[in-house]
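Session log. Operator J.P. requested a structure for one protein chain; no other inputs attached. Running the standard single-chain path with token output.
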Amino acid sequence: MSQHSPVAATTVSSWTGLLDELYRESWDPGIRRHRSPFVYRGMANANNDLRTSLTRLAGGREIEKLEGHLLRNFRKYAHADSAAGNSLWNWLALAAHHGLPTRMLDWTYSPFVALHFATADLSQYHRDAVIWCVNHGETNRRLPQQLRKELDEEGSNVFSVDMLNEVAQTLEDLESLSKDPFIVFLEPPSLDDRIVTQFALFSLMSTPDQRMDTWLEGHGDVSRRVIIPAGMKWEVRDKLDQAGITERMLFPGLDGLTAWLARYYSPAAAVLADDQKPRVGEQGSEQSPNHDITQKVHPQNDSGNGHADCTEQQTAHQIRIKQPKRHRK
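Structure written below.
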């Protein structure tokens, strides 16, 4: 494994520069089409890392035992209508979808969906945002042989639940495939419309105590970060709204509709007072709680997409906005 160093970051200064950076390396000469090998994760605070909700919940406790307790009790008490069959990976995806702390993180194939989650939280507009870009083709090259063979035989770049189950039926099976940690990208079943509309997929590490960002730091050619300065967030947000990338489209139903309306009609002055408005490139110095709306916004959720209702505390310069329920963690 190569020496660890921070994942490369590029700070953009314009909308066109942002798009160029997100779509960089998208040309596939083999098929002569623009088909990016990257998956994306948008986070409202560029200071946040890729720790999972399970890692944060564990807080130094034995994470393997905690994970087992959570999954066992979820399967025991889950409503019959939510039954996911016998596959562990179905149960894990279902649990993450409904907000259980897991080793999974949410990603999307769409850079525009990632931009939405990086700019949807108005209370974070004084901080730079970040889009994590990970080349899943390169992460696949680091997979154990059995997993690479399954992808090759199926002609796929990511695993379905059934494909992963062909190689590993349990978390212990997955870990036993290699002594070195690795990343698996998994497309979840279409549990609801949100997974479909958000072009969603999960990542999971082979061991629950391995942080994905730490792994990426040791593999410099696999990922990069795109930093969106706080001063650009309104421009990005308004252009996404005009393009139809909104809560109303990404969270079908009344929750998404009300979240979109509350945010769309919020004046900029209600978010930040004049003396708080950042300059382009300025980033908040403090570390906010490790979550952003790319996850389901449960109290103990991953730093990303949310599942439960989350209401920002109203202050003199922040408006009260109820975030929609997220499709996964």
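Operator note: The CA atoms of residues 123 and 318 lie 6 Å apart.
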